[in-house]
Amino acid sequence: PTEDPLYRIEKLLVRAAPLVDDQESYLGVVEAYKEKADNTAMMAYTSSWGEANPNGGKEVIEEYLDRTKLDVMESEKYLREILGYLGLQPLPPSKNP
């Protein structure tokens, strides 16, 4: 089990679509978020095995982590857009990482 508060959040976000005026655009952003979040998880997992993989090494791990960071930033952008569709304000950053 995961403790990630956003694990499978896209199911809840799809169920919230009736609350939005432009459902087609909203659902497009939800799908983009899901794709980016899935890719982020995959890249983070892959980076944890970087040195064990063929052609792996610290440089490969750094590359995966850099790509993961970009995906996380894009995921945040999509989540903020989703909050806007729903008329919600973002929460302040967590003080407990």
Describe this structure in words.
This protein is mainly α and 97 residues long. It is 64% helix and 0% strand. It contains three helices and no strands. It has helices spanning 9-15, 23-48, 58-86. The chain is elongated and about 50 Å long.
Quick synopsis:
The chain is mostly helical and 97 residues long. The protein is built from three helices and no strands.
Report strand %.
under 5%
Give the low-pLDDT segments.
none
Mean pLDDT across every amino acid position = 85
Give the structural class. mainly alpha
Q: Provide the gyration radius in Å.
A: 16 Å
Which of globular, elongated, flat, extended, rod-shaped describes the shape? elongated
Distance between the termini: 19 Å
Number of strands: 0
Instruction: Please give the oligomerization state of what you see.
Output: single chain
Residues in helices, as a percent range: 55-70%
Count of helical stretches: 3
The major beta sheet can be summarized as:
none
N-to-C SSE string, H for helix and E for strand: HHH
How does the SSE layout of this entry go?
Elements: H1 9-15, H2 23-48, H3 58-86
Keywords:
97 residues; mainly alpha; 3 helices
